[in-house]
Amino acid sequence: MSGKIRFFGLVTLLGLVGAVLLLGVFSWGQKAKPPQPPAPPADPAIAYVAWGTGGSNLMVMNEDGSNQRILLEGSKKRIISCSPNWSPDGNRIAFYCDIQGNGIYIINKDGHGLCRVVAMEEGGTYGAGHPHWSPDGMKIIYSDTLGPGLNEDIYMVDAVENAASRINLTNSPDIAEFYPSWEPDGLRLAAMDDGFIVIFDLLEPDESHDWMAVPVQNLTRTGPLANAFVTAPEWANASGKIAVIAHAEARDIWEIDLNIPTNPLYSNLTPTLEISEWNPSWSPLDTQIVFDRDSCIYVMNADGSNITRIAAPNPKSLSLKEPDWRRNLQ
Questions:
Q1: DSSP count for the chain of H helices, then E strands
Q2: Residue 221: what are its φ and ψ, rounded to 5°?
Q3: Integer angstrom CA distances of residue 131 from 213, 226, 254
Q4: Is the CATH code 2.120.10.30 the one for domain 46-325?
Q5: Which residues, in sequence order, are bridge partners of residue 103?
Q6: pLDDT (tens digit per residue) in 44-96
Q7: How many other β-carbons are positioned within 10 Å of the β-carbon of residue 212?
């Protein structure tokens, strides 16, 4: 009996030794495998501008601030990007820059396909540009001035390289209109009009006129924003609201609810007396707003709660500005 026990004990010992050797070979084989390439970054959700001592860069990142990367690099001698705006399909970005001459440009979300849509004049009262895509992705509106001493008008061009012509929608040399934003249904525009936020009906051409933007409602001449200088309207994607920047003691983000057009509702989303916010942009489902504050980029809920910083400058950038959220993400 003792012989059998010794025999089985030896078999068991040999089995354990074999298992250890096999495990070692397996582990060695695993370690010898080449490293797998990193997973590609998620589709960028937010475009923005990083300003630094070396110029400005057009940037993109995920909605949580991760995977920040340069889409188009600038230099000290030129402004690479200003006021980026995503196309409705989320594949391209329109922006203002002077990389190949002052104008409105388009670039693909992967950084390829840079082209100039239309050349722009120099100067302007408040700084021209601020392109915004039409809901169907076929056209772009922006502000520009035709020369010294004149104020900005809102123009419309086809969203193609070297657009054949541009159309002056407002044609009002004595009034400055800029920061245009297209209503999601494409029938109206919101824009700053000499310090007020005005709604324009967009009239298609007929026998008597070309395309025209006709002012129909001043949202800030009266009411809680009557004494503020109000800029940067950004129409929500589906909720019938407009986010604006009101300049009083500080710049705050206000919401104008137009679901009852004859009785708009006004809400200060960031009542911060000593802190200024700028450049609001709605998330795809209008549940959040991204904006810049103190050279950083933040997001908050649409009611102003849960303000969270998602991006801050690094040694190569002094400030992060002008975020724009893709509208086709779910």
A1: 1, 24
A2: -70, -35
A3: 16, 27, 21
A4: yes
A5: 97, 119
A6: 999 999 988 777 899 999 999 999 999 998 876 677 778 999 999 999 999 99
A7: 18
